[in-house]
Amino acid sequence: MRPVAAALSHSANCYSWMVFLCMPASIIGRMTSPLALLRRPAGIALSTLVASLALSACGGGGGSAGTSAGAGSSGTAPTTPTTPTTPTTPTTPVVTAPDPIPADFTSYQNLCAAPRTGVDAGGLAFPDRQGTLLDEMKFLRGWADRYYLWYSEIPSSVRMADYTTAIGYFGALKTPGLTASGKAKDRFHFTYTTAEWDALNTAGEEVGYGLTWSRNATTPPRTWLAAIVEPDSPAAKAGVQRGDMLVAVDGVDFVETGTTAGVATLNAGLFPEAAGEAHRLTIRRGASTFDVNLNAAVVASASVKNAKVLDTANGKVGYLTFDDFNAVAEKQLIDAFAMFKAQGVTDLVIDMRYNGGGLLYIAAELAYMVTGPATAGKTFEQLQYNDKTAPDAPIPFRNSAYGFASPNPARAGQALPYLGLNRVTVLATSGTCSASEAVINGLRGVDVQVDVIGGQTCGKPYGFTPVDNCGTTYFSIEFQGVNAKGFGDFADGFAPTCAVSDDLSRAQGDPAEGMLAAALNYRASGTCPVSRAKAVNMELVRPQAKEIAILPRK
Questions:
Q1: What is the DSSP secondary-structure string of 442-475?
Q2: Mean pLDDT of 376-393
């Protein structure tokens, strides 16, 4: 998965340059922001990645050693110039023809340099056949030319012969273009091992402690606070609470450490690779500092938490924490909305402050459960592909369950409960991305009032259809989504109706927690809270696959 070393590098000003100027292309292809941080790719040692970041310079700094002094400077007397020689005729540069793009790229799919044997998690035999690295690259090049949204902007200078891995080559198969604000046009190009992706998407499972951090920086001085503690996880059982501050990892100072060995220890302890790994975190809570011993495990995250009904002076308000549009979420959302409906909820707060996105069909189901039959069959989102792909029918507000496979699935075709609301409140931060933003945009497209309380959302109007090949799942932007009014230009995110900082001092769902309290107040009075405190910019530490919009493969 993602290399960790970039997350905990040494100097923000120096190393942000060094990562991109000094690291080999095969690694750069994996270093996509911000999750180039969470897992190191198989076969690449962490010490190698850290060492590449520890270089003191990329070819020196300052000026050229041969630069002369300017006018008015002192120095030795000039020497007599020599007679210039007759210039030689320059040689004609060798122009290398670009790699041919295979029109029959599907014939290379599942031809693998190292075919898998056996069966997948679903009991189906792997489709891999013996092939070569070149076969894998040919498939990727043809697939990108056919489906990548900006296929015509892939540089012709990207050549298969220059890469030693399929993943490294894939990392170069994207537009180098920039947005008007100077950001990379494509910031969402990445891979997972297929086994990891299947576990994460189907069962919501990953190896760890069930602990998600919110950070201000990856370089010293670092402030990382516990944002999400999964119920019944190793972190929860050890007593870690939301808002706890990380002080040390396995005895190494987390806040200030910048040495290569120290960074390696921090990464190993924060992001264990195997269940059963034991590490010690030092936590500060208020005036107390204490150690917690954690054993990594395969953690199944709950996508929907804290579903409850809040009795207010203005009626019953439903509330739920919603963290992930994965397959597990489908049944959990249905159960939550059935409870809301049974208890006569007349307003709703959806807490998606940490929801990075996921399955668009579940987003369309959620939007329907907010609105009901008034939107059944109407356009939730229209996907816009490249000019080689015929447009699909719009994704409608779905009034029945798709039936995604999960440990506790919803029945396919099951009628969805609904609340029939024309207004909803969304709690959001910069960690609210992609499919979460599609819910906001889709509802606004049919004139449902969506009040956003919190911060600016992250701005990801794009999506993928994941493609598996030879044990790697590839994510490459294939479409941009627009709502029923044709709007989808939110690359800078949605601005909040009321700007409120994430309140890590209280649990999500607590009516006194800052964002929820502001939402309830705005619902009752139409006014936003006034704060003179300067908000600290924090972001979640999480896999990039949790910040996407996904469409099932047909």
A1: HHHTTT-EEEEEES------EEB--EEETTEEEE
A2: 94
> Which of 21-35, 56-70, 194-208, 360-374 is the least confident region?
21-35
Mean pLDDT (whole number) for 225-254 = 96
Q: How many CB atoms lie within 10 A of CB 336?
A: 25
Q: For the domain bounded by 304-472+483-528, which CATH number is listed? A: 3.90.226.10
Burial 207-228 (b: 16+ CB within 10 A, else e): bbbbbbbbbeebbbebebbbbb
Which one, of 505, 166, 548, lies nearest residue 516 by Cα?
A: 505
Greater model confidence, 103 or 516 = 516
Provide the mean pLDDT of the chain. Answer: 82
pLDDT band at 62, cuts 50/70/90? Answer: very low
pLDDT, position 40: 29
CATH architecture classification, 206-300? Roll (2.30)
Question: Could you tell me the pTM of the whole model?
Answer: 0.75
Nearest CA to 470 out of 168, 193, 199, 202 is that of 193
Residue by residue, DSSP assigns 129-194 as EE--HHHHHHHHHHHHHHH-TTGGGS-TT--GGG-SSHHHHHHHSS---B-TTS-BS----EEEEH
Count other Cβ atoms within 10 Å, centred on residue 316: 15
Helices 435-444, 360-371: crossing angle, 10 deg rounding: 40
Can you count the helices (H) and strands (E) in the chain?
Answer: 12, 26
The predicted pLDDT at position 88 comes to: 54
Residue 105 carries which DSSP code? Answer: G
Residues 46 and 550: beta-carbon distance below 8 Å: no
Tokens matching residue 476: 């490459």
Question: 427-462, pLDDT tens digit by residue?
Answer: 999 999 999 999 999 999 999 999 999 999 988 999
Q: Which residue has the tokens 């949790």?
A: 546
Query: Distance between CA atoms of 278 and 376, rounded to whole angstroms?
Result: 50
Q: What is the pLDDT of residue 543?
A: 65
Calculate the alpha carbon distances from 487 to 378, 382, 427 in Å: 15, 10, 21
End-to-end CA distance of the chain: 26
Strands 315-322 and 347-351, sheet pairing: parallel
Domain ranges (residues) in the chain: 12-52+99-202, 206-300, 304-472+483-528
Amino acid identity, position 266: L
Contact 378, 443 (CB under 8 A): no
